[in-house]
């Protein structure tokens, strides 16, 4: 029996001497499932962290949309200029839901001179005005058109050639018509990239912001050189 045992041991030793270039698969198969070698082959799946999606900032000029949370407020806090029948313009942001929105979202804040294109599904100055003076819903979606401000330098050799819509307390005057024989029509032809058109608003003359009546008086009293501040929508 001792001799047989010795032979078995010898046979085992001989089996271990594999020819060069062979692989002993029994070694891996014999390893327990918890061995470090097996663990190294396990694939670790990392959890993907949720990335907060931030709204892009409002443009310097052009259209954009914001949704205003109004749950804790009795009003939006917007004061609007109703001179235009289709484009109510924000002239002031007072205490209310919009002011709070501006504080929390400075890159998307609503400014004076912005025009309200729509309020949820409501459009038109009178309809929006009515909504603004009511208690807002839980959330209100506003579509805004932000103007580009330009300065127009003119030599006063004739009439401006503009028909304006304005009121005593309106912010400047809204351009309703441009006459072909006037100074502004000529300026448009010379500045095709900054053409002033119907719906734009003249808000100042010679560096002074003016209300409706005041604007007309200032334009009339201007001497040879005149600079108009215009909001292009």
Task: Walk me through the structure.
This protein is α+β, with helices and mostly antiparallel strands. The protein contains 7 helices and 11 strands. It has helices at residues 2-16, 25-30, 36-41, 97-104, 125-132, 183-190, 212-221, and strands at residues 62-69, 78-81, 89-93, 115-119, 139-146, 148-155, 162-165, 173-178, 201-205, 208-209, 225-232. Strands 6, 7, 8, 9, 10 and 11 form a 6-stranded antiparallel β-sheet that branches. The chain has a 3-stranded antiparallel β-sheet with strand order 1-5-4. A two-stranded antiparallel ribbon has the order 2-3.
Write a brief caption for the model.
With 233 residues, this protein is of the alpha+beta class.
Features:
11 strands; 7 helices; disordered N terminus; 27% strand; 3-stranded antiparallel sheet; 6-stranded antiparallel sheet; single chain; 233 residues; alpha+beta
- Write down the overall mean pLDDT: 84
Strand content bin: 25-35%
Structural class: alpha+beta
Gyration radius from CA atoms, angstroms: 38 Å
| Number of continuous helical runs | 7
Secondary-structure element pattern, one letter each: HHHEEEHEHEEEEHEEHE
Q: What separation lies between the terminal Cα atoms?
A: 107 Å
The best one-word shape is elongated
SSE inventory with pairings:
Elements: H1 2-16, H2 25-30, H3 36-41, E1 62-69, E2 78-81, E3 89-93, H4 97-104, E4 115-119, H5 125-132, E5 139-146, E6 148-155, E7 162-165, E8 173-178, H6 183-190, E9 201-205, E10 208-209, H7 212-221, E11 225-232
Antiparallel strand pairs: 1-5, 2-3, 4-5, 6-11, 7-8, 8-9, 9-10, 9-11
């Amino acid at each position: 029996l001792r001799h047989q045992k010795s032979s078995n041991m010898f046979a085992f030793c001989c089996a271990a001497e594999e020819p060069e270039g062979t692989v002993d698969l029994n070694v891996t198969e014999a390893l327990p499932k918890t061995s470090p070698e097996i663990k190294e082959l396990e694939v670790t799946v990392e959890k993907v962290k949720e990335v907060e999606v931030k709204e892009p900032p409002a443009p310097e000029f052009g259209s954009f949309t914001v949704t205003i949370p109004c749950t804790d407020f009795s009003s939006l806090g917007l004061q609007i200029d109703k001179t235009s029948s289709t484009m109510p313009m924000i002239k002031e942001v007072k205490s209310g839901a919009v002011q709070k929105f501006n504080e929390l979202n400075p890159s998307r804040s609503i400014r004076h001179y912005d025009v309200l294109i729509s309020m949820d599904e409501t459009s038109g100055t009178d309809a929006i005005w009515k909504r603004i003076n009511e208690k807002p819903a839980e959330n209100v979606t506003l579509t805004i058109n932000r103007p580009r401000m330009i300065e127009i330098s003119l030599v006063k050799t004739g009439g401006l050639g503009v028909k304006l819509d304005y009121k005593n307390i309106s912010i400047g005057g809204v351009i309703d018509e441009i006459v072909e024989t006037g100074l502004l029509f000529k300026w448009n032809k010379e500045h095709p990239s900054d053409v002033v058109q119907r719906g734009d608003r003249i808000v100042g003359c010679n560096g002074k912001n003016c209300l409706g009546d005041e604007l007309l008086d200032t334009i009339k009293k201007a001497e040879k050189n005149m600079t108009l501040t215009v909001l292009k929508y």
